[in-house]
Each structure stands twice: as structure tokens, then as C-alpha cells.
Amino acid sequence: MGKWFSAFFSQAGFEVMISDIDTELTPEDLARRCDITVLSLPMEIFPDVVRQIGPVMPDAALLTDLCSLKQTQVQCMLDHTSCNVVGTHPLFGPAERSIQGRRVAICPGRGQRWLVWWEALFRSRKAKTTIFSPEEHDRTMAWVQALNHFILLCLGKALEEDGINLNHVMELATPSFERQLHILARLCHQDPELYATIQLGNPYTGSAIETFNKYARQLMEILSGRNRREFISMFREVQELGPYLLKHFEEEH
């Protein structure tokens, strides 16, 4: 994502400087010289780098990040620097050709001027931005990412253990299940280290998965008891989400 955003900022007309493990430019040198420092790092080393560069950043500068989690990361940046701080989470991967139509979550940390400018930059490039507190971001991402990945991993392991002919599964897949299989297939391009950090690092993951498991167990009991009335009742309760979700999708398009 660092490489992707380097190209993005260059195309937007900004001078881009890069510090990495194989560059002569050190993180401290970059932080001293740049108006905006964007951290695109594995979350495991994120705190070390923030402690390294935070104290040398000018107070008028902006420090931001591209991490998938925000609560701990934004607080870390606030703790180790006195400059402006904004958390940034691009909700897409480096395979995307453009930011147009893609979602970007923005989490306020310190300072209003850079926050407004930062969001305006993404909106000027037709991104869909939303401002969240770091806590609300992580709580929501427990459902959007952690639970989603949990379901995909369980689906993949279940298909593997059952030994069912995958060609038959794909040949008989409904459009909705075909979309699920396509998402499952894309895991082969993802970084398991990042996914592990997302699962283990979000303080709200356990709550989201336990709520999901609660209803999975309830549904299993309904099916085991062949309770048609209870199944239909649960189905209708879930249907009540439909109008709200459909309205949201229609408004976006």
C-alpha cells in the first residue's frame, strides 16, 4: 500500500520521499523534512517507528498511517509526537487502479486544519470518505474484517475437510455462493501475517465472533430439531434488515 500511495501522491502533484529498509534516507530524516509523513508499516513494528520519528516531527506537520486498526495506532501517534495526527484506513487493496469510488476511513487524532485538508484531498479524487472515532472504527472492523475473515477461513476448511468435488461445487454454485467462492479464492493473494494481526489485534474481535457463534448454535438447534416454525421466524427477523441495506446500496449508486 505504501507503493500504491506513493504513486497516488505523485500523480496528485506532490513531491514524495520514501524511507525503507533499503534506502539511504532514514525515517528520522524523512520526518524532519516532510510536511506529511505517512506510515505504511506492519502493525508489529508500528510503535517502534512512531517512537523513533515522533519526537523529531515539526509541530505543524501531519503524521498519519495506513493501518487496518486505529485505536492503539492513533493513541501511539498521539503519545509520541506533538504534531497533527490523523488515522487513515484505505478500505481497498493495492490491486485497485484508482481511488475513485473506493472507501477511506479517517480517524481524527489531533488538529483540525490537516484533518479537513486530508479528507478534501481524497474527496477531490472521488474517494468515499467517512470520519470515525478510532474506537468506533475498530469495533466496526471487527465485523467488516475479523468476522468476515473468520467465516471465510471456516468455509475453506469445511470444504477441504469434506472432500467434496470443487468442480461440482463451482458448476452448481448460485450467483451468491459464486461470489463467496470468488472472495475465498482471493485469499491466496493475501498476507496471512496481516490477517493474523487483524484477527488478534482488534479488541472487539472476540465479541463479534461470539455473537455470531451464538446464533450459529441457535440455528443448529433449530435444524437439529427440525423446527420449521422457528426457522421461518429467524429468517423473517433477518429479512427486516433488508430494506435498510437496500436503501443504503441504492443511495450509493
Descriptive keywords:
elongated; 11% strand; alpha/beta; 2 domains; Rossmann fold; 12 helices
Structure description:
With 253 residues, the protein is of the alpha/beta class. It folds into two domains: 2-132, NAD(P)-binding Rossmann-like Domain (Rossmann fold); 136-224. The chain contains twelve helices and five strands. It has helices spanning 2-11, 27-33, 46-53, 71-80, 113-124, 134-162, 166-171, 175-185, 192-201, 205-224, 228-239, 242-252, and strands spanning 36-39, 62-65, 84-90, 103-110, 128-131. A five-stranded mixed β-sheet has the order 1-2-3-4-5. The longest helix has 29 residues, at 134-162. The model has no long low-confidence stretch (mean pLDDT 95).
Please outline the helices and strands.
Layout: H1 2-11, H2 27-33, E1 36-39, H3 46-53, E2 62-65, H4 71-80, E3 84-90, E4 103-110, H5 113-124, E5 128-131, H6 134-162, H7 166-171, H8 175-185, H9 192-201, H10 205-224, H11 228-239, H12 242-252
Parallel strand pairs: 1-2, 2-3, 4-5
Antiparallel strand pairs: 3-4
Helix pairs in contact: 3-4, 6-10
Catalogue the unreliable spans.
Answer: none
Distance between the termini: 27 Å
Tell me the Rg in angstroms: 22 Å
Q: Give the DSSP E fraction (strand runs of 2 or more residues).
A: 5-15%
What is the CATH superfamily of the largest domain?
A: NAD(P)-binding Rossmann-like Domain
Name the shape in a single word. Answer: elongated
In short:
This protein has 253 residues and is of the alpha/beta class. Helices cover 58% and strands 11% of the residues.
